[in-house]
Amino acid sequence: MIITLEGIDGCGKSTQAEMLAKSIGGARKRYPDREGIYGQLFIKILKKKVNFEMSGESLFPMFLMDMLKDMDMFSRYKGNKEKHLVVDRYVHSTLAYQCAQGFNYDKGKQVIEGFDLVKPDIAVIIDVTPEECIKRLRGGQELFEKAYFLGKVRENYMRIYREKFFAGKMVMINGMKGPEDVHGEIERAIKG
Fold first, then answer.
1. Contact at 8 Å (CB) between 16 and 182?
2. pTM, to two decimals
3. What's the CA gap between 41 and 19, in Å, rounded?
């Protein structure tokens, strides 16, 4: 079974992915894949170590190619109730973030559907306000700009959730609670 965890920066995705993989005995995957060639490039771009700007339209297919290389592994987990793969960010993050940077949302959905990507069995969106996420992140960019951008990303996640796009089952969890409470809600959603 493939379970993806999604949400804006600072929502607790990585913490929840670690907790969930441990509690269900699942493997864990994270995107961007910091070990892969695309992931290493993304990290350099995001940390401004590479001296050029890339648009959401340029980055969109690159993020998907980072995932595409793992589809043989994903297919071993798809629909398998005995084996679990917990994924920290997947196609929904690409759609939410790149479209917040100006890439056309409907075109993004078409691109995702055009790639030969495995659809997750369950996609969990952890919903937290941008203001709370900024408190959790403690720093970084100008706070107003960061809150505005995260607000746009959150709106995209809300749209993805309403449309139930690209998942066997999609749930939204209130991430404003403590980590243990959020973990409990995620486990109940997976079992239910």
1. yes
2. 0.93
3. 28
